[in-house]
């Protein structure tokens, strides 16, 4: 490339005081090769957060809100039940701020999550997968009570949806200012993302349709069955519509209190279930055809966004949330069948020139 056409960068125009200041302000990126003609399809790539997921936002806010309220004291241990991304976010925040962290996690979640948390200085206490999300949650409660630790309570705390209202939603409002935005598509884990987005979009972009999605074989909201709750809105028992599903980070075996606000206040327009296999297939297509790595939940939201795009009139603008990166899933079904060794085609390429052949 000559000097006129080469891409140039200028830096961010600031020096960062800590890794924590790099959370948020993730890019909204156009999908070019997969989107149907005439529809503008965008993804908000939360993998650009320092811990590579959307959960960095609430991890930082839970800790800072607790510091402000006095619920967390200097040097006190933090404990939380998490499917991984919140734990990685909390581990990053706790490493920077000097709090010990203990994470409880069912042993069904990907091993790279455990190792990342331990790499970031956290301790990870595994719980049996048979006891599901409520098991790892109850273990965190037990540990907090026994040892006097600060329980982060991502499924109940106001600090969760508040940060999506203050950051994720504001970024979308800013980035789509003066432009159309017909649909926003997201799933739910805690429900923080959809609840925070709904608070802002309902007021400032009332024409935007909020599409919520959940696993087809664990359609908790779709079942219409209310969640039984105990003290503080925590689940009293596993939801009867739950079944294990491969969309890590989505739909625990209960309807979280944080999500309940969006359900009660009309925070979504349509609920579209999606099969885990479709999520995996679309995450692979996003990687191979757009160069965008996302996890199974991102692929699942994207599968729904593509369904909408395929039926939408020309000019429609759709935004799909991508909560994390595909690299977090190397040992999961997302990478199943992606080989380590050369296949026949690669071997033929190797043999097509004389030098540096294997074996
Ligand atoms: N996808 C992944 C991979 C996640 O870890 C989470 C959070 N558990 C979500 C989606 C859902 O986000 P939220 O908790 O804001 O509903």
Structure description:
The protein is α/β, with parallel strands linked by helices and 359 residues long. The chain folds into two domains: 11-48 and 169-335, Rossmann fold (3-Layer(aba) Sandwich); 55-151, Rossmann fold (3-Layer(aba) Sandwich). 36% of the residues lie in helices and 14% in strands. It has ten helices and ten strands. It has helices at residues 55-69, 85-97, 111-119, 132-147, 158-175, 192-204, 257-264, 276-290, 296-311, 344-351, and strands at residues 28-31, 40-45, 78-81, 101-106, 123-127, 150-151, 183-186, 209-215, 270-274, 317-322. The protein has a six-stranded mixed beta sheet, with helices on both faces. Strands 5-4-3-6 form a four-stranded parallel beta sheet, sandwiched between helices. Strand 1 (28-31) and strand 2 form a beta hairpin. Helix 1 crosses helix 2 (85-97). The longest helix has 18 residues, at 158-175. The mean pLDDT is 96. The structure holds 4'-deoxy-4'-aminopyridoxal-5'-phosphate (PMP). 4'-deoxy-4'-aminopyridoxal-5'-phosphate is lined by residues 53-55, 83, 85, 187-193, 248-250, 295, 297, 323-324.
């Amino acid at each position: 490339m000559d000097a006129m056409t080469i891409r140039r960068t200028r830096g961010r125009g600031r020096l960062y005081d800590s890794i924590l200041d790099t959370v948020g302000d993730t890019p909204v990126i156009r999908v070019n090769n997969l989107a149907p003609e005439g529809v503008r399809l965008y993804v908000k790539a939360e993998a650009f957060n320092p811990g590579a997921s959307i959960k960095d936002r609430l991890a930082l806010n839970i800790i800072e809100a607790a510091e402000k309220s006095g619920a967390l004291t200097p040097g006190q241990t933090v404990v939380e039940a998490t499917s991984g991304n919140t734990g990685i976010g909390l581990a990053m925040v706790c490493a920077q701020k000097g709090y010990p962290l203990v994470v409880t996690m069912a042993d069904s979640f990907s091993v790279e999550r455990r190792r990342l948390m331990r790499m970031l200085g956290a301790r990870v206490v595994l719980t049996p997968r048979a006891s599901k999300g409520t098991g790892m949650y109850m273990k965190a409660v037990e540990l907090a009570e026994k040892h006097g630790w600060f329980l982060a309570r991502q499924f109940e705390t106001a600090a969760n949806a508040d940060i999506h209202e203050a950051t994720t939603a504001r970024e979308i409002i800013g980035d789509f200012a003066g432009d159309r935005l017909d649909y926003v598509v997201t799933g739910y884990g805690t429900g923080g993302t959809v609840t925070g987005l709904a608070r802002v979009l309902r007021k400032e972009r009332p024409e935007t349709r909020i599409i919520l999605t959940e696993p087809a074989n664990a359609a908790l909201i779709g079942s219409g069955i209310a969640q039984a709750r105990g003290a503080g809105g925590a689940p009293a028992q596993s939801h009867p519509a739950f079944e294990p599903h491969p969309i890590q980070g989505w739909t625990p075996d209960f309807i979280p209190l944080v999500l309940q606000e969006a359900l009660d206040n009309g925070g979504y327009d349509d609920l579209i279930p999606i099969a885990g296999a479709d999520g995996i297939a679309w995450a692979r297509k996003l990687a191979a055809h757009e160069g965008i790595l996302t996890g199974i939940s991102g692929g699942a939201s994207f599968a729904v966004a593509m369904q909408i795009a395929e039926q939408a009139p020309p000019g429609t603008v759709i935004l799909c949330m991508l909560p994390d990166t595909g690299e977090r899933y190397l040992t999961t079904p997302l990478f199943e069948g992606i080989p380590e060794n050369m296949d026949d085609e690669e071997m033929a390429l190797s043999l097509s020139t004389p030098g540096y052949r294997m074996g």
